[in-house]
Amino acid sequence: MTNETHIHMANPRAKFIRHRAYRELREQFDLQLCRRRAALEAGMAFEAGAIALTGAPGSGRTTAVDHAISMRNDLILPKHKMETCEVVQIQVPSPATLKTGGGTLSDALGYELMRDKSAALIWQHARKLLKERRTLFVHLDEVQDIYLSKGDQARSEVLNTLKSIMNNKDWPVGLILSGTPDLLHMINADRQLQRRVSV
Fold this sequence. Notes:
Layout: H1 3-14, H2 20-42, E1 50-54, H3 61-70, E2 87-91, H4 98-108, H5 119-132, E3 137-141, H6 144-148, H7 152-167, E4 174-179, H8 183-188, H9 191-196, E5 197-198
Parallel strand pairs: 1-4, 1-5, 2-3, 3-4
Helix pairs in contact: 2-3, 4-5
């Protein structure tokens, strides 16, 4: 193929096509964001929820979430270098554990943690950072990787950690979960989580 052919092929690939799943994601994100902002303005307690987007590898899940977030030009993102960070996005690192996930989230919020801390302490600190940065949503990409390779007790800890972010009385945070269809196994394993997630 010639260089010109590659350029012609790259142009369509760079375009984002709005599909049904994207429209549902965008609608849910806008709805939950508006509800949370209204509750904050009114000084009311708010129960945060979650949105899950699943699809095969390479199906454009991450691109869809990125696009939904970028379309809200009123959002304060980490790149703005401000104290407030309304949405933070991380890809769950490999090896996928609660410790590495919590550490990556802390890094994204601007705080590098000592790696010898326990997973419970890392996530406790992450929840404090989310409140300090006034974060409204956390996007966890490939989050099913933390869950799937673990035994029953560790899986329970993953589910409880995710719920603790949404249930935090001081500062509840909404979740955007994206991953392969295996993500549905994680969501369906816990009724409380299942009730809070729009898939």
